[in-house]
Write a structure and sequence with these properties.
Elements (H helix, E strand, L loop, with lengths): L4 H8 L8 H14 L5 H4 L2 H18 L7 H28 L1 H4 L4 H30 L6 H54 L2 H17 L1 H18 L5 E3 H19 L3 E6 L3 H5 L2 E3 L2 H12 L8 E10 L2 E9 L8 H7 L3 H11 L4 E6 L3 E9 L6
Parallel strand pairs: 2-4
Antiparallel strand pairs: 1-3, 4-5, 5-7, 6-7
Helix pairs in contact: 4-5, 5-7, 7-8, 9-10, 10-11, 11-13
Length: about 375
């Protein structure tokens, strides 16, 4: 919603230090998001609406000039159009703004219907009153059929005019909502990355493990600290494309850190391509690591049994497929429905799609016996 330079100058003036342009614009945006029709009298000032009505009345009068014999007839009809449109539009705009709190509670179709009915009813009333005044003044000859057709013509024109504006406001509202959703997804992705970098759960568990090992096993504490340093250094580099060997190394650093705390509860097996093939493979940083982190958090930490995680990586027909299979515990009860809700890799999949295209995806299937997660994305084999 546009604001004049004068309003900004007022907000930034010495006399108005308490005003905030940012807060004001945020408030306006919030209003546009919660309701598809802006404050109409804020969109344009009254004189701007009057100017718009003037040219609109001129346009309609020119279209409907078939029965006008002289310029005086044209001017009379043009003036009557202006008065009629002013009497229809301006009160309706003020009324719509006044009723905004009530209109916000209704659905879009209901609101649109009410506004359309309001303006069309106003057009019928104002057209009737204006023509009655003109008949009394002798400027118009009364003809029941012509009278009715004129009222109907004004109602239809007003209805079409209103519908166009409602469609425009609805389209703008949808665009704003799409931008909002896109922004929220990006913000969620950024928050997810930040949490991955310094997850409080992971961070404090690691600190506790280090404190314990410093007293009981200093060499092991030094080794663990090296793993922590490597993982955090990589995570703070942000989302980027790295070699698959680097991603595997990051996963091993992460698993080494967690193994110091989980002891014998975790067994991870790898089935990787040969070194020559892995040399040409790339992936988005921390994609596989974040999948393993969710598995540990939602499965391994929920049981005292040993959990086996099998990771198999293949590269065939220009696609990389990573199968992560987690065998669920037999004795510990884990609610499958909760697992399906928590084992969600939408953010990681979106990050993959940014680098490798829309065919990249991460899908997870949860059964009573296992969780199968498949990371699948295209990658051209440069060696072919």
């Amino acid at each position: 919603m546009l604001k004049s330079w004068r309003s900004y100058e007022s907000k930034t003036s010495q006399e108005n230090k308490t005003s905030s342009i940012a807060n004001d614009e945020v408030a306006l945006l919030a209003e546009r998001l919660e309701f598809f029709i802006p404050k109409l009298m804020d969109v344009m000032r009254p004189w701007q609406w009057l100017l718009y009505i003037f040219f609109w009345s001129l346009f309609v009068t020119v279209i409907d000039r078939h029965d006008l014999a002289t310029w005086s007839d044209f001017l009379v009809k043009f003036a009557s159009r202006i008065v009629q449109n002013v009497a229809t539009i301006l009160p309706a705009l003020y009324l719509i703004d006044y009723l905004r709190p009530l209109l916000k509670r209704a659905d879009t179709i209901s609101v649109s219907g009410r506004i359309l009915l309001l303006l069309m009813s106003g057009a019928a009333v104002s057209a009737t009153l204006i023509m009655l005044v003109m008949i009394n003044m002798g400027w118009l000859v009364y003809n029941p059929k012509a009278f009715l057709l004129n009222v109907l013509f004004n109602v239809v024109i007003t209805g079409g005019f209103t519908s166009v504006f409602l469609l425009y406001f609805l389209r703008r509202h949808r665009e704003l909502m799409t931008l909002k959703q896109s922004f929220e997804q990006k913000l969620t992705a950024q928050n997810d990355i930040i949490k991955a970098r310094i997850s409080p759960h992971f961070f404090f568990n690691t600190i506790n493990s280090l404190v314990s090992l410093i007293e009981t096993n200093p060499p092991r504490a030094s080794e663990l600290l090296q793993h922590v340093s490597a993982l955090f250094r990589a995570s703070f580099n942000g989302v980027r494309e790295i070699s698959f060997e680097e991603e595997v190394a990051l996963c091993e650093h992460y698993l080494a850190i967690e193994s110091s705390r989980l002891a014998d509860k975790l067994v991870v097996t790898w089935q990787l391509p040969d070194d020559d093939m892995m040399y040409d493979m790339v992936i988005t940083a921390l994609t596989l690591q974040s999948v393993l982190e969710k598995m540990l958090l939602n499965v391994v930490e929920m049981t005292t049994e040993t959990i086996v995680i099998d990771i198999m990586v293949t590269w065939q027909q220009h696609r990389i497929v990573i199968n992560i299979t987690v065998q669920l515990p037999n004795k510990t009860f884990i609610v499958t429905h909760d697992l399906r809700r928590h084992i969600n890799f939408h953010i990681q999949a979106e990050r993959l799609k940014i680098f490798f295209g829309q065919s990249a995806d991460i899908k997870s299937t949860v059964t009573h016996k296992q969780i199968l997660t498949i990371i699948d994305y295209p990658l051209q084999d440069v060696g072919l």
